[in-house]
């Protein structure tokens, strides 16, 4: 389809996200779902009504990879502006740090960038860890 996962949703199933989740691809779906359910429980949120924005599901990864295969690189500046706008509009980033003893998320440049944006006091973003 050459689209992001979220682009394939019907308009009725697509709504504003509750927060952006910072995570890395090495986690299993089970670990991610378990952490999200635990976060919802601890924060008094209805898991069925909590919508999560994940870059891997909301960005068109197919277009990015197709461009790379053709030797065309995406410039960082447009991604940074899009991400900054998205995070500011949501107002919250929740970082999934697992496992605690070997926090792989802190070894990923993009994840560090997400945390950097979230931790900037000028952005007014609520930053939480799960």
Give an account of the 3D structure.
- The protein is an alpha/beta fold and 130 residues long.
- 41% of the residues lie in helices and 11% in strands.
- The protein has five helices and four strands, in the order E-H-E-H-H-H-E-H-E.
- The chain has helices at residues 29-42, 55-58, 61-69, 76-90, 109-119; strands at residues 19-22, 52-53, 92-95, 126-129.
- It has a four-stranded parallel beta sheet with strand order 2-1-3-4.
- The model has no long low-confidence stretch (mean pLDDT 83).
Rounded to an integer, what's the Rg over CA atoms?
15 Å
Count of runs of 4 or more consecutive helical residues: 5
Q: What is the count of β-strands? A: 4
| Dominant shape | globular
Q: Kindly report how far apart the N and C termini lie.
A: 33 Å
User: How would a crystallographer describe the biggest sheet?
Assistant: 4 strands, parallel
* Structural class assignment: alpha/beta
- Proportion of residues in extended strands: 5-15%
Share in helix: 40-55%
> Order of SSEs, N→C?
EHEHHHEHE
């Amino acid at each position: 389809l050459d689209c992001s996962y979220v682009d394939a949703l019907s308009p009725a199933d697509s709504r504003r996200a509750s927060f952006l989740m910072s995570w890395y691809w090495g986690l299993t779906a089970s670990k991610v779902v378990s952490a999200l359910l635990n976060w919802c429980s601890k924060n008094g949120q209805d898991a069925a009504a909590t919508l999560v924005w994940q870059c891997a599901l909301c960005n068109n990864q197919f277009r990015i990879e197709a461009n790379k295969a053709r030797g065309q690189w995406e410039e960082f500046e447009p991604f940074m502006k899009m991400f900054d706008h998205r995070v500011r509009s949501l107002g919250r980033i929740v970082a999934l740090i697992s496992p605690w003893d070997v926090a792989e998320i802190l070894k990923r440049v993009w994840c560090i960038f997400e945390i950097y944006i979230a931790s900037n006091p000028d952005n007014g973003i609520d930053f939480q860890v799960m």
